[in-house]
Amino acid sequence: MLSGLASHGIRFVVIGGIAGAAHGSGRHTDDLDICYANDDGNIGRLAALLSGWEAYPRGVQRGLPFFMDTRTFATTPVMTLTTTEGDMDVFDEVAGVGGFAAALDGSITMEAFDVTFDALDLPALIAAKRAANRPKDLEHLPELEALLVLRQTETK
Predict the structure, then answer these.
(1) What is the C-alpha separation between 45 and 40, in angstroms, rounded?
(2) Residue-wise DSSP of 93-153
(3) Residue 152: pLDDT band by 50, 70, 90 thresholds?
(4) What is the pLDDT of residue 151?
(5) What phi, psi does 15 have (nearest 5°)?
(6) pLDDT value of residue 78
(7) Which of 35, 72, 108, 129 sees the fewest Cβ atoms within 10 Å?
(8) Cα 15 vs. chain centroid, distance in angstroms?
(9) b/e map of 103-135 (b: 16 or more CB within 10 Å)?
(10) Please, which residues bridge with residue 57 across strands?
């Protein structure tokens, strides 16, 4: 999925469990969470890619009318989707961080699977998990905070 997003010129920041894993977290996640730039060109490219991946709302019975296009992003800026490439959650804003510009400011550039991408840095990821306030996010905080302390110790 990262490769597909990058190769289509989509501007995004990885914000969820994959960001945590990229920082060394041992938690497993089954989906890719991103915050996307919400300008018309970027949304058009993202909608076209997701349409090609047969994106459909996760947990919704197949066969109901659903159209992945730019109008969908105008009415549903946060979507939990299943695609032919895997599950993906797309956000126009990250709780505790802000929109794409703020997420990008709170990110670092990483490389994995021969793809260069931006992912929330540990302080921003911790803020996002804390703001989400879901049990699974709160349970993840001690590990992320420990990773942050380790990183800060390594740089001294």
Answers:
(1) 9
(2) EETTTEEHHHHHHTEEEEEETTEEEEEE-HHHHHHHHHHH--HHHHHHHHHHHHHHHHHHH
(3) confident
(4) 85
(5) -125, -10
(6) 94
(7) 108
(8) 4
(9) bbebbeebeeeeeebbbbbbebbbbbbbebeee
(10) 81
Give the residue among 15, 53, 7 at the shortest CA–CA distance from 34: 15
State the CB neighbour count (10 A cutoff) for residue 2.
Answer: 21
Q: How far apart are CA 126 and CA 86, in angstroms?
A: 25
Pairing between strand 56-57 and 79-83?
Answer: antiparallel
pLDDT higher than 90, residue 63: no
**Cα(20)–Cα(34) distance, integer angstroms:** 13
Q: What is the pLDDT of residue 49?
A: 98
Amino acid at 88: M
Q: Which two tokens stand for residue 97?
A: 């961080």
pLDDT, one tens digit per residue, over 86-102 is 999 999 999 999 999 99
- Per 3-state DSSP, the chain is made up of helix, strand and coil in percentages (nearest 5) of 45, 25, 30
